[in-house]
Structure formats: C-alpha cells, structure tokens
Amino acid sequence: MPLLVFMTLPGLVILLTVLAFVDQLMLRAGRAGLLPWRNSARQGQISATGFEQLHATFSPGKQSELKERQSALLLRDDEEDGAPPNRTLVDLEGGTAVVRLPRA
C-alpha cells in the first residue's frame, strides 16, 4: 500500500521532500557517504534535481531550460574566441566601427 501512495503525484512530492530532508541532514552531519546517491566527488545539492525533473514534467519551458543547460555543459567556452583586445572599437551612437589589423 505505501508503494501505491508514492506512485501518485502528492506521494511523489512527499517522497522527494523526505529524500531532500535526509540528504541535507546527512550532508550537514558529515555522513553523506552513507547515502547511495552520494559519492566523494558530489558535494552540491542533489535534492533539487528531483524537483526540477518534476517541474519539467508539467512545464515545457522548464524542460527546454534543462536541455539547454545540459547542452551548455557540453560546449567549450574558450576566452580566446572573442575579439582581440584593443583592436576593435565600436561606437553605437555614431554608427561606426574601427577594426585595426595586426602588424605583420
């Protein structure tokens, strides 16, 4: 019977809340390694993941946000990809742009 309760939406929210509470309690007590979903490399809040997935089930905007976040984690962000410093000047009010070529 308790398994049927957790298969309903209110039961799922209750289960996620209890798991979040246990996760935070064990994390603050320094015993997070005893939990099966925690390992030594994971230190952030894992309880928010369940609530975000539940939110994504009912909100298509949240689902696309989670997909965008996942794809952003896979892309590299190199600082060298931008324009070189002190070579370009853009004046938005005057409508002019100056690009200085590097000297050979």
Description:
51% of the residues lie in helices and 8% in strands. It is elongated, with a radius of gyration of 24 Å. The protein has four helices and two strands; from the N terminus they run H-H-H-H-E-E. It has a two-stranded antiparallel ribbon. A hairpin with a 4-residue loop joins strand 1 and strand 2. The protein is mainly alpha-helical and 104 residues long. The termini are far apart.
Blueprint (SSEs and pairs):
Elements lengths: L1 H5 L2 H21 L17 H12 L1 H15 L13 E4 L4 E4 L5
Antiparallel strand pairs: 1-2
How much of the sequence is in beta strands?
Answer: 5-15%
Q: So what's the overall shape?
A: elongated
Q: What is the radius of gyration? A: 24 Å
Output the strand order for the largest sheet.
Answer: 1-2
Point out poorly predicted stretches: none
Distance between the termini: 78 Å
Which structural class fits the helix and strand makeup? mainly alpha
Number of strands: 2
Sheet with the most strands, sense and barrel status: 2 strands, antiparallel
Helix content: 40-55%
Counting DSSP H or I runs of 4 or more residues, the number of helices is 4
Report mean pLDDT, rounded to a whole number. Answer: 76
| H/E series | HHHHEE
